[in-house]
UniProtKB/TrEMBL annotation:
GO cellular component: ribosome
Entries under Pfam families matching the protein: Ribosomal_L23 (PF00276)
NCBIfam families listed in its UniProt record: PRK05738.1-3 (NF004359), PRK05738.2-4 (NF004363), PRK05738.3-2 (NF004366)
Signal peptide positions on this chain: none
Domain of life: Bacteria
Entry keywords, A to Z: Ribonucleoprotein, Ribosomal protein, RNA-binding, rRNA-binding
Assembly and binders: Part of the 50S ribosomal subunit. Contacts protein L29, and trigger factor when it is bound to the ribosome.
Function: One of the early assembly proteins it binds 23S rRNA. One of the proteins that surrounds the polypeptide exit tunnel on the outside of the ribosome. Forms the main docking site for trigger factor binding to the ribosome.
Descriptive protein name: Large ribosomal subunit protein uL23
Family listed: Belongs to the universal ribosomal protein uL23 family.
Alphabetical list of PANTHER family matching this protein: 60S RIBOSOMAL PROTEIN L23A
Length: 100
């Protein structure tokens, strides 16, 4: 991969991801070919935090139907990143305060 910005695609915003933030875990959509080491380096460089652990999940496509047309949702990779105790990512912290 060329750039850290090609590894991290976007943060995942869901109820479950917000619940995990209280435990210091942040969820991102990442490049499907990115290994855990690259994900760790990208999060540390972009957000300036220390990553303790990276868990990845390959999200499988689901069958969908619109009228007579059948298809599938896209396949993507999700990374759950655990940060060092006491650290947080400010982008998420601001969103979480606004939601309360």
């Amino acid at each position: 991969m060329n750039s850290v910005y090609n590894v991290i695609i976007r943060p995942v915003v869901s109820e479950r991801s917000y619940d995990l933030m209280e435990q210091g875990k942040y969820t991102f959509e990442v490049a499907r070919t990115a290994p855990k080491e690259e994900i760790r380096d990208a999060v540390e460089k972009i957000f300036g935090v220390h990553v303790v652990k990276v868990n990845t999940v390959n999200v499988k496509p689901k069958n969908k139907r619109v009228r007579m047309q059948q298809g599938k949702t896209r396949q993507w990779k999700k990374a759950i990143v655990t940060l060092k105790e006491g650290e947080s990512i400010e982008i998420f912290a601001n969103d979480q305060q606004a939601a309360e």
